[in-house]
From TrEMBL:
Protein's name according to its UniProt entry: Hydroxymethylglutaryl-CoA lyase
Classification via PANTHER family: HYDROXYMETHYLGLUTARYL-COA LYASE
Annotated keywords: Lyase, Metal-binding, Transferase
Domain named Pyruvate carboxyltransferase: residues: 3-269
Keyword match Transferase: yes
Tree of life domain: Bacteria
GO MF annotation list: acyltransferase activity, acyl groups converted into alkyl on transfer; hydroxymethylglutaryl-CoA lyase activity; metal ion binding
Organism: Thermoactinomyces intermedius
CDD domains: DRE_TIM_HMGL
InterPro entries assigned: AIPM/Hcit_synth_CS, Aldolase_TIM, HMGL, PYR_CT
Pfam families per the UniProt record, alphabetical: HMGL-like
């Protein structure tokens, strides 16, 4: 089994933090994540800076990305955002919308119906520039405003995204309400119309079910999973939504299953400890907490979280 881990911490992870990291710190994080073995990095979002000030350095960060053998991705909400991104080192882009009307209006300030043509324009122009585009569908398993979201809504949006030319669709449990059995059933319904090879899982761990839900994806044949270093994350328009599934927790589970991700877990934990220092708070990853406790007990490492592996 070849599992692809998409690291979204620099975008989805940092967008909900009260502390805004300096651009140079983000670049250092990219270097460290690469040294850990991460190959797919979502680094920022080209939304208007006033909406997500934590990512207001998108142009500067994306224009000065370290030249590494990784795939850099950024979120683009519209043509204006895409045109900004085209002037940078970003390799591919991502468009997004919600499966529930209320969340889409809160998140994008448009109806789902009005959002689709905007995204189609973005995908078309990106393709003209030889760039691939991924699609995100939020609130696939539940909405903070509407509750249950009919699976037919999800399928219809997925079909529209594929029709406009996205190469992959990430299914988001934006508020972390899903449990394994419902994930299994919902994936079965979605995969009746969309092949597993075109899907990815994006789970938040608000209620502690993120890792179990990710495992259900693997059992269903969906081998691309979005995670965030340290378990950072949350959605500004989904009250109470805790962080994404932690990259460290997923890598640990896969390692124990005999699945090699190519990621050095110790180096990854050291990277998250480095982030903790700059954010001024512990991160929620269970694997990271275990690593930090063991490190403290052994008296290893330096104060800045750059100690030995």
């Amino acid at each position: 089994m070849d599992v692809k881990i998409v690291e979204v911490g620099l975008r989805d992870g940092l967008q909900n933090e009260p502390v805004t990291l300096a651009t140079e710190v983000k670049k250092e994080l990219i270097e460290r994540l690469f040294q850990s073995g991460i190959k797919h990095l979502e680094v920022t979002s080209f939304v208007h800076p006033k909406w997500i000030p934590q990512l207001s350095d998108a142009d500067r960060l994306a224009a000065g990305l370290p030249r590494l053998p990784v795939t850099y991705r950024a979120l683009v909400p519209n043509l204006r955002g895409l045109k900004r991104a085209l002037d940078t080192r970003i390799d591919e882009y991502a468009v997004f919308l919600s499966a529930s009307e209320s969340h889409n209006r809160k998140n994008i300030n448009k109806s789902i119906r009005d959002t689709i043509p905007v995204l189609r324009e973005v995908v078309q122009l990106a393709h003209q520039h030889g760039k691939r585009v991924r699609g995100y569908v939020s609130t696939v398993f539940g909405c903070p405003y509407e509750g249950n979201v009919p699976v037919q809504n999800v399928v219809r949006i997925c079909e529209q995204l594929l029709d406009m030319g996205v190469y992959e669709i990430s299914l988001g449990d934006t508020i972390g309400v899903a449990a394994p059995l419902e994930v299994k059933h919902r994936l079965k319904d979605i995969m009746s119309a969309v092949p597993a090879s075109k899907l990815a899982g994006h789970f938040h761990d608000t209620r502690g079910t993120g890792l179990a839900n990710a495992y259900v994806c693997l059992e269903a044949g969906i081998y691309t999973l979005d995670t965030s270093f340290g378990g950072l994350g949350g959605c500004p328009y989904a009250p109470g939504a805790a962080g994404n599934l932690a990259t460290e927790d997923l890598v640990y589970m896969l390692n124990r299953q005999g699945i090699d991700t190519g990621i050095d877990l110790d180096r990854l934990c050291e990277t998250s400890l480095y982030v903790q220092k700059h954010l001024g708070k512990p991160l929620p990853s269970k694997m990271l907490q275990s690593y930090a406790a063991k490190k403290k007990e052994c008296g290893g490492g330096n104060e800045d979280g750059t100690g030995g592996h």
